[in-house]
């Protein structure tokens, strides 16, 4: 769907020219009217220069020309291989053009395909009572949807797809509401669709083809925002899982590599688990292996009759990170480049790329993103070379021995931080919680060094609290604090233990802060009735003097107070259980 | 009712401990014009008691009729309105509040709430005093901005409103505020004075209080009268016919801190540091302020320490106490202090015992 749209955009751009010209012929004749024409036609301004009375439009025209030139270039870049713009077809993008149509063409692992295929075969042969839903999960671009389409065509089944309705723009909504149309949420529409599919799925008029061979494909779940909407979606999908009688595939893209603290990513995982427990079958797609990407790319090259070096293909395959869609687009882009600059012998190009040997300097390739836990693992494990490299000796200025550390076996901490896009506060909390596990048992000095740097980081972060509206400064402080925390941990841990497997804990500090806040509120609320005095006692006095004394008195003297406090204790403990979040059992292995 | 409240002197002439201060205050009231006042002194020295007695002296028994209100104030701060929840205690003549409860919003509290109250000048009937008194607790906890706006409020509304400020340390109150107030220093009571108070209470309660035991409580109380009275009451509950060598129940958190201190002395390793962290969390959960934990911990550690290390350790304690006030997460700094101590102590042990 999306791809088609993108294509369409390109078509419009290239045909713009003709339209302009045709418009020009219409507009240039009544010259006097030109200023009042609301829709400026820049082409006209260029070809038929206006008098000095209208400098504005000519200026705009020059801007437009620039834009146009740029667009043309862009256009050429993308469609340059074509003979003429008019011949463009939908298969302009290689991703669409070389879409796998047969099972053999899929880059997905054979066994996985087989697994999905047999699942559908069974369902199509004899409809089962329940258990008709297949969850297909995996990162983006690993061929989830393509697999299902290919299998469907292999089995001769029609795919009945949930097509996402076009989003309503706000102005459009305003317009519609004037004319009496009511806004319908996308979630409502989706619910309606699911409802129909569940109840009348087989008799739906929109369905063509025989009854036996229909596959329901839900590729694009509506994005939900907030708890309520999410629960609705979950309920609706659960019903679907339990009641639907057509074989159904729900495609869920995992974003687990991104920020794990984000609500939406968490809720997809949760959804997956809950649907799985409701009886849906689950298949996980792994990133496509480098070899099979290479194979696919080579095939495409052959079909397109392009000469691309094997090294280049391998480079693309590696850089794509298992995302085959991305790999193919990269390849197409690369081919354009090679085509347009034939002066550069491809051999030489490869050499330069090879000697740089850095994924980031390629014009394509996904920027790697790390989860926060990966970054933490890198900082905590503190892997270093076992000796100094000669390169660093050359420009090293003399350091005292206690400040000298071996070079790191990873990118600069700032780069890692960038990739992990974690907040400085979260990072320092996690480091603080976990770093002690990774220190040598003997070296309390290291522990102090680490602790002092974390204290520095906290100090930096707290200077943010001045409620300054200066986001630039805030950003700098954030990154400086993160950098101090990360580098402090790396530097301070001078004698890292040989790497062992460790679980990364969730900062206990958060729990402590919560319960301390709760206790404080409770204390303040008791202030009035319990400490029956004429003044407001302050918090410190209450915590350090009244409470302990009352504890001594309370156990013996007043029964009621004791009962009270016991009830409160109960509620406290339940609260704590609720607050235990999912992160606690996230564990990473030695990396 | 706790004895602390039960035997709190209600009027200035019944005061046992700071009689000289009480007399001066009485003179001040009788002369009719009461300036802004700043009471400062250590915790448990009787500031609040004096303030309450002073209010009673000014307004008569109606000052005792107070009601506690938990009110949400809507403060208009430029573009948005901020809701500040604050507990106040008020009679017809005075309002008492704890501006620092509002956290970092204390500035608005001072600016707006006080302004509003000060504007509502009580109607001058029957020749009564035409001003209202605002009692502000924990002024030293106020942020700098809040103290600045306090200064302006004091000047602007001085005709209709008197402020009585109460704080533990005058050094954290800005010079500008201090110079606009009559500063009243309330010293911590001497141990003999505490013994006097305890004997007074014992007489009222009809208890036999051995002299040695009273002195013992007074000594343990660290010259904190409130604490002494509370301890006295707990001792009464624990074991009545008092004996001279009766065990005085310690404050639970202090005991806990001394446990931490001995943990630290026993072993110095990251693992032990981690255990200590757990215990510190426990204290923080129970709302013991981190500054007090650090102070107490230093005190406990110094008791057991060789004198040549004391200087350095104190230096680092001061360093991290400062950090703690600047920073946000106290545990980071507390832990850094503990780690530094461990590091110092360990190298000391190695150098002396090899």
UniProtKB/TrEMBL annotation, chain A:
Residues 130-274 form the AAA+ ATPase domain. One of its GO terms (molecular function) is chromatin binding. One of its GO terms (cellular component) is nucleus. InterPro entries: AAA+_ATPase, Checkpoint_prot_Rad17_Rad24, P-loop_NTPase, RFC_lid. It is found in: Nucleus. Residues 23-35 have a biased composition (Polar residues). The keyword Isomerase does not apply. Residues 23-54 are annotated as: Disordered. Pfam families: Rad17. Keywords: ATP-binding, Cell cycle, DNA damage, Nucleotide-binding, Nucleus. This is AAA+ ATPase domain-containing protein.
From TrEMBL, chain B:
It is found in: Nucleus. GO terms for biological process: DNA repair; DNA strand elongation involved in DNA replication. Coiled coil: none annotated. Keywords: DNA replication, Nucleus. Residues 33-189 form the AAA+ ATPase domain. GO terms for cellular component: DNA replication factor C complex; nucleus. Its main location: nucleus. SMART domains: AAA. GO terms for molecular function: DNA binding; DNA clamp loader activity. Gene3D superfamilies: 1.10.8.60, 1.20.272.10, P-loop containing nucleotide triphosphate hydrolases (3.40.50.300). Heterotetramer of subunits RFC2, RFC3, RFC4 and RFC5 that can form a complex with RFC1. Belongs to the activator 1 small subunits family. May be involved in DNA replication and thus regulate cell proliferation. This is AAA+ ATPase domain-containing protein. It comes from Anisodus acutangulus. The lineage of its organism: Eukaryota, Viridiplantae, Streptophyta, Embryophyta, Tracheophyta.
């Amino acid at each position: 769907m999306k791809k088609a749209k993108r294509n369409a955009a390109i078509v419009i751009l290239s045909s713009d020219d003709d339209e302009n010209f045709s418009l020009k012929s219409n507009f240039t004749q009544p010259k006097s009217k030109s200023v009042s024409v609301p829709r400026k036609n820049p082409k006209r301004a260029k070809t038929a220069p206006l008098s000095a009375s209208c400098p504005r439009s000519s200026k705009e025209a020059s801007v437009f020309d620039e834009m146009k030139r740029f667009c043309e270039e862009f256009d050429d870049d993308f469609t340059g291989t074509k003979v003429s713009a008019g011949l463009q077809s939908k298969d302009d993008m290689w991703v669409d053009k070389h879409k796998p149509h047969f099972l053999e063409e899929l880059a997905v692992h054979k066994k996985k395909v087989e697994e999905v295929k047999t699942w559908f075969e069974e369902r199509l042969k004899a409809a089962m009572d329940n258990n008709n839903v297949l969850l297909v999960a995996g990162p983006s671009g690993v061929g989830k949807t393509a697999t299902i389409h290919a299998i469907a065509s292999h089995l001769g089944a029609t795919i009945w797809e949930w097509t996402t309705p076009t989003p309503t723009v706000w102005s459009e909504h305003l317009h519609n509401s004037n004319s009496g149309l009511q806004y319908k949420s996308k979630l409502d529409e989706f619910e309606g669709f699911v409802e129909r599919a569940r109840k009348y799925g087989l008799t739906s008029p929109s369905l063509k083809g025989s009854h036996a061979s229909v596959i329901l494909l839900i590729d694009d779940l509506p994005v939900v925002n907030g708890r309520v909407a999410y629960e609705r979606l979950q309920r609706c999908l659960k019903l679907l899982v339990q009641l639907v009688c057509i074989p159904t595939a729900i495609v869920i893209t995992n974003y687990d590599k991104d920020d794990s603290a984000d609500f939406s990513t968490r809720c997809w995982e949760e959804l997956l688990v809950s649907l799985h427990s409701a009886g849906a079958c689950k298949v996980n797609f792994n990133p496509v292996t480098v070899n099979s990407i290479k194979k696919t790319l080579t095939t495409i090259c052959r079909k397109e009759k392009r000469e691309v070096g094997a090294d280049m293909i391998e480079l693309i395959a590696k850089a794509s990170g298992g995302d085959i869609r991305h790999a193919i687009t990269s390849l197409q882009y690369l081919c354009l480049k090679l085509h347009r600059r034939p002066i550069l012998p491809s051999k030489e190009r490869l050499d330069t790329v090879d000697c740089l040997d850095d994924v980031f300097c390629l014009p394509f390739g996904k920027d790697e993103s790390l989860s926060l836990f990966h970054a933490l693992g890198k900082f905590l494990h503190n892997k270093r070379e076992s000796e100094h490299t000669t390169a660093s000796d050359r420009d090293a200025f003399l350091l005292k021995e206690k400040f000298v550390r071996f070079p790191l076996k990873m990118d600069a901490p700032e780069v890692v931080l960038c990739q992990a896009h974690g907040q400085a506060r979260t990072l320092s909390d996690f480091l603080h919680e976990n770093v002690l596990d990774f220190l040598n048992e003997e070296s309390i000095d290291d522990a102090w060094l680490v602790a002092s740097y974390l204290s520095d980081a906290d100090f930096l972060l707290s200077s943010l609290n001045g409620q300054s509206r200066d986001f630039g400064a805030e950003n700098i402080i954030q990154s400086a604090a993160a950098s101090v925390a990360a580098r402090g941990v790396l530097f301070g841990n001078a004698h890292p233990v040989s790497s062992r497997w460790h679980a990364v804990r969730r900062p206990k500090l958060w729990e402590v802060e919560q319960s301390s806040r709760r206790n404080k509120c409770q204390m303040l609320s008791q202030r009035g009735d319990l400490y029956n005095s004429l003044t407001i006692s302050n918090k410190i006095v209450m915590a350090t003097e009244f409470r302990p004394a009352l504890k001594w008195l309370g156990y013996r003297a007043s029964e009621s107070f004791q009962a009270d406090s016991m009830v409160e204790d109960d509620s406290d403990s339940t609260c704590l259980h609720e607050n235990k979040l999912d992160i606690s059992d996230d564990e990473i292995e030695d990396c | 009712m706790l004895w602390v409240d039960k035997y709190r002197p209600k009027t200035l002439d019944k005061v046992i401990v700071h009689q000289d201060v009480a007399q001066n205050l009485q003179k001040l009231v009788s002369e009719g014009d009461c300036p802004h006042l700043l009471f400062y002194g250590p915790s448990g020295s009787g500031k609040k008691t004096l303030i309450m007695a002073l209010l009673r002296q000014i307004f008569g028994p109606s000052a005792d009729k107070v009601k506690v209100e938990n009110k949400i104030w809507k403060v208009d701060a430029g573009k948005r309105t901020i809701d500040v929840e604050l507990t106040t205690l008020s009679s017809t003549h005075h309002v008492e509040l704890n501006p620092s409860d509002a956290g970092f919003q204390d500035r608005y509290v001072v600016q707006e709430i006080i302004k509003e109250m000060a504007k509502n000048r009580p109607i001058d009937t029957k020749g009564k005093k035409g001003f209202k008194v605002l009692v502000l607790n924990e002024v030293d906890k106020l942020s700098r901005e809040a103290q600045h706006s306090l200064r302006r409020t004091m000047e602007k509304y001085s005709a209709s409103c008197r402020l009585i400020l109460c704080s533990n340390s005058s050094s954290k109150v800005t010079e500008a505020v201090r110079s606009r107030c009559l500063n009243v220093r309330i010293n911590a009571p001497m141990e003999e004075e505490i013994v006097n108070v305890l004997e007074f209470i014992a007489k009222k309660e009809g208890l036999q209080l051995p002299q040695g035991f009273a002195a013992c409580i007074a000594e343990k109380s660290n010259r904190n009268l409130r604490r002494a009275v509370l301890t006295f009451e707990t001792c009464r509950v624990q074991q009545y016919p008092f004996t001279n060598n009766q065990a005085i129940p310690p404050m639970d958190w202090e005991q806990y801190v001394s446990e931490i201190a001995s943990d630290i002395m026993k072993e110095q390793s990251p693992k032990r540091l981690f255990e200590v962290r757990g215990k510190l969390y426990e204290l923080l959960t129970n709302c013991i302020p981190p500054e007090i934990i650090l102070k107490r911990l230093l005190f406990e550690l110094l008791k057991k320490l060789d004198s040549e290390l004391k200087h350095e350790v104190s230096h680092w304690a001061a360093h991290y106490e400062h950090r703690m006030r600047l920073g946000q997460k106290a545990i980071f700094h507390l832990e850094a202090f503990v780690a530094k101590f461990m590091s110092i102590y360990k190298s000391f042990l190695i150098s002396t015992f090899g």
